[in-house]
Records
---
Amino acid sequence: MGDVNKYGRNYVRGKTLSEDMVSLVIDEIVDMGGDTATGFFEQYSAVASKFKLSPKTTKKVWMQFCKSGQLKPKKSCASGVKHLKPEDLDFIEFLKTDKPSMSSGDLLKEVERHCVIPEGTSREAINRAVRNFMHDGKWSRK
């Protein structure tokens, strides 16, 4: 379920603060004189103790808001092979079915030759596709 920090707040490791909590922290900092243009603010401890957060977390929330202007953290891009389309995955599966011992380097060459991928692709993306995104289930790349 979670742990309790030394300030008394429940948290789950790796999970971000709720958007409501981030909004409350930012509003409090602005009310206490925080400058969003420069990021200047000195009283992180006061805000942190009010919301039972660590001063370090409070400072991270404030600096992220000043840098991006958004409450939500930026989404990570490394969540899969989104640049490979279903037809590309079908082509990779066809190649692996036709010749199961085909190396990832040869797969990469064939994909680059026959598939239209504007940004290009990498050997790791193809290996990830073979491991996780084949219609017949997970495959080994070897």
---
Amino acid sequence: MTKNILIIGAGPAGLAFIMAVYKHNFNYTLTCYEKEDKIGGIWSKEAEEIKINDNMYYDNFGRYKLDDNQIYKFGDYEIKNENKNIWLTKDVQVFLNNICELTKINISFNKKVIQIKPLKEGFNIEYIDLSDKFSKIHISHFDIVINCSGPHAVFSDKIINTSDFKGPVLNYHKNNILKELNNSIEKLKDKSILIIGMSFPCLDILNLFKYYKIMFKKVYISDYCKAFDFDDSRINYFGEIKKIKKDTVYFSNNICKIDLIINTIGLSADSTIYPEKYQFYKGMICHNVENLYSLANPGPLYCGFNSIYIRATYIVNVINGNIKLANEKDKLIEIKNLENKLKELSYKKYNDRINFLIEYYENLINDINKKNKLKDINIEKMLNSYDLLNYLNKNYINQ
């Protein structure tokens, strides 16, 4: 029976999933909803002449560089570029447009998903048409949902309302916050800052504070961030945020005055669409709702399109039944082990952390497929894991 799949988002992650389905000839009916009127996600909003490496991330050691020739190469398909040593934002758009032409995917633009409702079988998707200012809520049904709606999907089932806060609110990824913070070092001096969110976005900001020796007064963050220990008495872990009013944040057991909010949950990911019990952990497959998956989008900002494609291939194989997920208890153990490992890597170079995430897939596949242990593959610490991708294609497709 043909699976009816919805892909939310037509950025690099959404198109990577579409490409994975296309290349492996799975008989799925694909529908893609994109809230903008064009593909590309965050890359459609960048100036056309920005070099890829000019838009790279910061870590403890400053900027890191990637091999431009490898950033967009995966499988046997790559962008045609006369000068492969210089990648501009417009080249990313050309590359993504080529995927649309190759796969002949039909993308529904101006469709904003506002709610995913799990049913006994499949999901009801509520969405509005942004091209119609009087649009009513439409409902469609899908067997499987792949969320690719933002570089950092929601990490919580509760969205924090910051509308009553009287000070500035910086939204991670919405305003290119790392560059904004870089230009506002003096403004952060002696300020009490609330960071909403967890994991890598929070870590990036704390690393930036450390790297530039920002003399903030206090930082308050969720206890989820304890996966990363910073030996700094100014950083406080106060747990769940109940509400924010004017200049005060109310935690479960504490009340604190703040001057600035940094929201790392990722507003571009349209956090309100997620079911109540849905969990997502930085690109890993960890969900409490069957047939609802998330494909994180590190994309060109992080480690290249190939890494997204590896994850997309993995999810496609899970959907097709070639890879069996571990049970819920085992998944929670995997996440705990992952958090401990990330804690060890938190002060290492960003590439080392990305390499670990790639290696994680080898270990996960090995754990949940006891009959097919990866004895003939050696995943070294490399950025573009073609060996892993080829192994997935060879051993887990059409078996």
